[in-house]
Write a structure and sequence with these properties.
- The protein is α/β, with parallel strands linked by helices.
- It has three domains: about 70 residues; about 50 residues, no CATH class; about 190 residues, von Willebrand factor, type A domain (Rossmann fold), CATH 3.40.50.410.
- Helix content is about 40%, strand content about 20%.
- It has a six-stranded mixed beta sheet with strand order 7-6-5-8-11-12, sandwiched between helices.
- β11, α9 and β12 form a beta-alpha-beta unit.
- α4 packs across α6, α4 packs across α10 and α6 runs parallel beside α10.
- The longest helix is centred in the first third of the chain and has 21 residues.
- The termini are far apart.
- About 5% of the residues have low confidence.
């Protein structure tokens, strides 16, 4: 019997050695909080173990190519490496591609409306022509079919009453605030929860800035306090020794959305723990044991205020504790919002489906 002997595996993806190493470099950066020097140290360790490079192309060549291609800059005095704007955008693009690949495979969280209205995205429904409809909205196939029914095949003529128009969905402009919990529990028990949250934020920011440039996205992080971060700062986001001041995050998000002119306003909140902190005057009120009603009642009151302001809150709870789920359900019911008890794997898919469904609104 004739067999085959394999001596090596040859990649057929057409990527150069630099492009292959760049893929690894970009995947590692979110885990090192954007620390280029630490990422290169990791890659050197991986190179020793898995022989990523060879005599024809070494790790030194890769570092030089990173600098030559505008991904890395070196401080000539200290010798430290830092990322460029090109690298930061590349990370966002890769996060978007990664999450969209999961988004397309999953049907979970799909809430697209079947209603139609005046807008700019064509759907499969048709209706009779009305004065003011655009020429490009005419469904010629349906219009000809109606003309044949109305006037007969042998005496064919096309009148205004025969014209059929494609229905369209209105693509709503949205102002979104993405709240990210950066309390210590986001890395507790050896589980990295902050990196998936950062990837979602980077992917969502890339989607909005490229596909929906009229939308707005603000990123709010919350620990003991809450503050905004720029999109370019997302790769460097780190968890701190903080409690979870959900109230501060919600108050800041509401303040931002009050100033936005878009009618469609949303808050996406990613958290893995219970609210444990509240700032009263100049001091912090903290309780990490169980659910403190002094803190949770304030959260629920803010959910009700958001409802009055027509701000939808979607909570993504990365936790499975029944008592935490009960609190999230109460919080969600008060806002008439949504809640997902998501795992780290499907977090991005849930958020993207919920965001995209909110882009389609009926216009009366």
């Amino acid at each position: 019997m004739i067999g085959f002997e394999f001596s090596k595996i040859v990649s057929d993806d057409g990527k150069s050695k630099f492009e292959q190493l760049l893929d690894i470099f970009m995947q590692l950066l979110p885990y090192t909080n954007g620390d280029a020097y630490e990422t290169l140290e990791w890659m050197n360790q991986l190179d020793k173990q898995f022989k990523l490079t060879d005599e024809s192309y070494g790790m030194g060549d890769f570092i030089q190519d990173l600098k030559d291609n505008g991904y890395l800059k070196e401080n000539e005095i200290s010798g430290d490496y830092s990322l460029t704007a090109k690298s930061e955008q590349n990370i966002r693009q890769r996060s978007l591609e990664e999450i969209f690949s999961k988004f397309k495979k999953s049907k979970q969280g799909d809430h697209n409306t079947k209603k139609s209205g005046g807008g700019d995205e064509i759907n499969s429904d048709t209706r009779s022509y009305q004065f003011g409809d655009k020429l490009e909205q005419i469904d010629f196939t349906e219009s000809i079919r109606h003309a044949q029914i109305n006037h007969g095949i042998h005496n064919f003529s096309l009148h205004e009453d025969d014209l059929q128009i494609h229905e369209t969905n209105f693509k709503a402009q949205t102002s979104t605030v993405l709240m990210i919990d950066i309390s210590h529990s986001m890395i507790l028990y050896g589980e990295d929860r902050i990196t998936p949250a950062k990837k979602v934020a980077m992917a969502l920011s890339e989607l909005i800035t490229t596909k929906y440039p009229k939308d707005t996205l603000d990123i709010v992080v919350f620990g003991n306090d809450a503050w905004t971060v720029e999109i370019k700062d997302l790769p460097y986001l780190q968890v701190g020794p903080y409690h979870t001041n959900t109230v501060a995050g919600l108050e800041l998000a509401m303040d931002i959305l009050r100033r936005r002119k878009n009618a469609n306003k949303k808050i996406f909140m990613i958290t893995d723990g219970k609210p444990t902190c509240l700032k009263i005057g100049g001091r912090y009120y903290k309780n990490s044991f169980g659910l403190d009603r002094k803190i949770t009642n304030k959260c629920i009151n803010l959910a009700a205020q958001c409802k009055k302001l027509k701000i939808d809150i979607t909570t993504f709870m990365i936790a499975s504790d029944p008592y935490l789920q009960a609190f999230v359900n109460e919080f969600t019911e008060m806002n008439n919002g949504k809640a997902y008890f998501a795992t780290l794997d499907n977090l991005g898919s849930f958020i993207f489906k919920d965001f995209e469904s909110g882009k389609r609104k009926t216009v009366y």
